[in-house]
Amino acid sequence: MKQKDNPQASQQSLKSNISALGRLIVSDANPRYFTIASHEASAQKAIYLTGSHIWNNFHDGMGPGPECAEISEVVDFDAYLNFLKEHGHNFIRLWRWEQFKSQAAGGSFHLCMTPQPWPRTSARTAKDGKPKFDLDSFDPVYFERLRERIIAAGERGIYVAVMFFDGWAIHLSPAPDNIEGHPFFGANNINDVSIKSILDYQVLPLDPRVQELQEKYIHKVIDTLHDLPNVLWEVANESSGGGTVDQNFAQMMGFSEVPDWGDSTEWQYWVIDVVKKYEQEMGYDIHPIGMTMQFPVIDQTRVNDPLFNSAADWISPGYDDEIFTEGRHPMAPDSPPSHWYDNPPAGDGSKVVITDTDHYAPGKGDALWAWKSFVRGHHPILMDFGIIMGVNPPDPSAGSPGVPSYDFYEAARYAMGDTLRYAEKMNLIEMEPHGDLTSTGLALANPGKEYLVLQPNDTSDPFTVMLESGTYTVEWFSVNGRETKSAENVTVERNGNTSFNAPFSEAGPAVLYLKQVKRGSA
To answer: pTM for the whole thing?
Structure first.
């Protein structure tokens, strides 16, 4: 019998192809961004991340209707990578969906996800009639796919945030499959492990057996991927934060009473600690780990406090607007948008912020959202429901109830790619949000050196930029038309406001890029 190749050894030549990406660390010079770990301080450049993601970009088994398909729907990962590159993206939020049977989007879609980390080898059957899981073993199919997909993404110049756990589907997807469709539900494994709610899985203290299995799984993921430079980690998606929901919300989710979901914060801090300690103990390269919005929380206006207070290297905030207290939320019909969507706060560098519509504007996404997020010092990523049925839909203009069409998101997708082009063109590591330097309130700048200004209005009214004296090259970019125009250099004799007017024939949002080519005397 031929000996099976060691998957890590057999991938060495492939790994060399992605090493050019470089392992990420948070930049000391400008901690709004990552930089390459191996570069000398004087040669560091900012790494800006942006891209589209959706629930089934790792697992097979998602499709329309509440019931699992007889044969799992297979996601075309190569087509997904092509889609990302066509739109100029360089980042994937790679989903972990923990249930082998579940639903989402109000039951409009089933998520009967396979593979899972543990093999189904028992003669006894689980809730879905298939073999039970053995939680004391790992399924090589899962981890081989994980490694292969990270490598494939890296070969296309794409970084990947690997999600360890998911919280949302365990407490917020429709009952009873949110729990009964999980491998850790008692009827689904041979190991006498039995969780009955998220309290038993993501809220400390846990049954030592559950926590031990989680830690072994975390170690296995790290062992599988530690040597790949394009890896980031994510603790979990939208785990519980100590709050409650009202009776109507609970009934909508299939619960007869309002559940107690507890607070996952300390458990998430434990996961971060396990990851960081294990990488260090094993002598592995250190990869950035992120923490994302929790739901529900006690005080929505402070939803992001546990993220900023964590040891995470990057975060994805949630909606924290005053208007969304007392159970109100931006997904409600006719609700105003969260400020994270239409007027995001400027990043102050306390954390790298990967701003994800999943956590404050699911179902939304346009070009201005991407540009505003960029010039405020964040990394925009899109929860892209337009690709929920694949990246090559038969009719890109057709949506389904509650799910926008593929075409709906095209402007946002291309805008993300456009922001990445400018991020790579500029010396971004020297630039900070400087809304104070323009009448539009939206700019990245290294004063006296480079300026990127967003004019967000549909009108063609002039606006001002406060410039230091000198001569600057001038480039314009039409946000909607995606047209670039160069203009004559501008010379500023004295520090102060200079007026600009976009040169495009059709009015609309525009970007102005200025770069100094000659210093002034005043």
So the answer is: 0.95
